[in-house]
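Thread amino acids onto this structure.
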């Protein structure tokens, strides 16, 4: 495409990284950052070993363990679960053998890979960023092209620092206006997925734009981009602006001084040009978004907290009726039941969607001076050791612990059942994570996705509750509130 035509943010980053384009349009892309975790890397390192190859760019490759790590002290004294212990030990052996920079489990900088990338300044605007993990889309909030790859691609990137990619289509989701009281970035993205569905972004890279997106802080932008994968998109991204640059200035491993100013000059050219054409456009009005909660077993099955459980019989076709019946049954619901009447057994605040300091502040704000309801197990799991430290410096851990929350070490935790933090069969959980399919948080577990403020409201009331009824108007309860 000639440079004179208006281009999108995605087009610009893509074109800046093409090493070669094949006749069918597939491109060999240069990859700036490769983040590695323990789940999807073992066979990739094994492949390198077998082929006698080395890691091509040690300065572009960073590894951390997050999925399998216990969030209590056993992570330091010896991981009990044999499979988890093996995965962590395998990554540690591989990074030592190949000389890859590793953030060890006892480091304050350890955490969920998608939290620590931006936090440390490893993920920067204009970059191509990959990781063997679907939620790599999170890093797109920096104004980067960031996407998940499979294990064989992890091996390819380790060996060559490049990746073969088919071009994606451009999609823009514009959120106009201002969010209402008690609504946050999580509500925006749940509302978007509710509107376009889990296949709404298929084949596209979504650029999130509009006044409500621009008003989000970096944490909120990461929440939105994180879940673009739940809308089926290849990646999600937000144009870099002053909010982005201010964030980057404070990152320990980001460029500094003259190098940073030069970078900012380039990053400032990245936003989509006026008149750039998107293959698909979706527009939402932020003022119409309410605090959202998922009721079913797919992130598209969301409703405002004021809603009621849908009646499967009211669906248009038999396939959907059967699907809804299964969801209602698995989730232990009755059609017509008010969502705000659903009692919860567990509350989880954490994950790469909502495990940042802003999320913990939002939860603590609601919890302050209240107690976790009887019979509810509530936990807060910071997304990284640095988030944990910051929260402790602000005294948020005290507020949460005094209310009856568990205060944990950083990791993926109850977002998925790969470590000891799991739901028991039939348990209902208000969760700030991003996936709610059957068994996601433990076999038979029932997940309701919502924002940190809404999760906190569930913890103190013992049910899915409308946070707006608990808080005085004007209280800050999230990144965008
Ligand atoms: C384990 C990993 C490959 C997986 C992913 O790719 O997303 C996990 O992070 C998840 O959230 O389900
Ligand atoms: S926190 Fe959850 S979604 Fe994020 S990387 Fe870990 S398991 Fe995947």
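Threaded sequence (481 positions):
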């Amino acid at each position: 495409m000639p440079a004179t035509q208006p281009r999108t943010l995605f087009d610009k980053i893509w074109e800046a990284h093409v090493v070669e384009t094949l006749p069918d349009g597939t491109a060999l892309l240069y990859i700036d950052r490769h983040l590695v975790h323990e789940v999807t890397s073992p066979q990739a390192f094994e492949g390198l070993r077998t082929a006698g190859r080395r890691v091509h760019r040690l300065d572009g490759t960073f590894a951390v363990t997050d999925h399998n790590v216990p969030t209590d002290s056993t992570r330091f004294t010896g991981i009990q679960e044999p499979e988890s212990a093996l995965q962590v030990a395998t990554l540690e052996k591989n990074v030592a053998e190949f000389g890859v920079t590793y953030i060890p489990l006892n480091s304050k900088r350890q955490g969920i890979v998608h939290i620590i990338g931006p936090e440390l300044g490893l993920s920067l605007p204009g970059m191509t960023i990959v990781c063997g993990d679907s939620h790599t889309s999170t890093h797109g909030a920096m104004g980067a092209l960031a996407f998940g790859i499979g294990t064989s691609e992890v091996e390819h990137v380790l060996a060559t620092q490049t990746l073969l990619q088919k071009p994606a289509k451009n999609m823009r989701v514009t959120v106009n206006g201002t969010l209402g009281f008690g609504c946050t970035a999580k509500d925006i993205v749940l509302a978007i997925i509710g509107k376009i569905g889990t296949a709404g972004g298929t084949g596209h890279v979504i650029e999130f734009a509009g006044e409500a997106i621009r008003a989000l802080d970096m944490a909120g932008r990461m929440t939105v981009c994180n879940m673009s994968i739940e809308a089926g998109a290849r990646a999600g991204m937000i144009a870099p602006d002053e909010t982005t640059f201010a964030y980057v200035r404070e990152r320990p491993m980001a460029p500094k001084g003259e190098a940073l100013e030069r970078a900012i000059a380039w990053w400032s050219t990245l936003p989509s040009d006026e008149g750039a054409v998107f293959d698909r456009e979706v527009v939402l009005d932020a003022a119409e978004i309410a605090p959202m909660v998922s009721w079913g077993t797919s992130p598209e099955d969301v409703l405002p907290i004021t809603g009621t459980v849908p009646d499967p019989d009211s669906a248009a076709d038999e396939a959907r009726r059967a699907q809804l019946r299964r969801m209602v049954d698995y989730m232990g619901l009755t059609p017509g039941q008010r969502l705000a009447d659903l009692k919860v057994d567990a509350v989880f605040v954490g994950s790469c969607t909502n495990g940042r300091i802003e999320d913990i502040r939002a939860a603590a704000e609601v919890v302050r001076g209240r107690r976790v309801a009887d019979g509810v197990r509530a936990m807060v799991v910071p997304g990284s050791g640095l988030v944990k430290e910051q929260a402790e410096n602000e005294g948020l851990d005290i507020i949460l612990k005094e209310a009856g929350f568990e205060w944990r070490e950083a990791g993926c935790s109850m977002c998925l059942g790969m470590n000891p933090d799991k739901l028991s069969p039939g348990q209902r959980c208000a969760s700030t994570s991003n996936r709610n399919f059957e068994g996601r948080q433990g076999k038979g577990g029932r997940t309701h996705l919502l924002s940190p403020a809404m999760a906190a409201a569930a913890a103190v009331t013992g049910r899915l509750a409308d946070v707006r009824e608990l808080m005085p108007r004007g209280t800050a309860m999230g990144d965008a509130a």
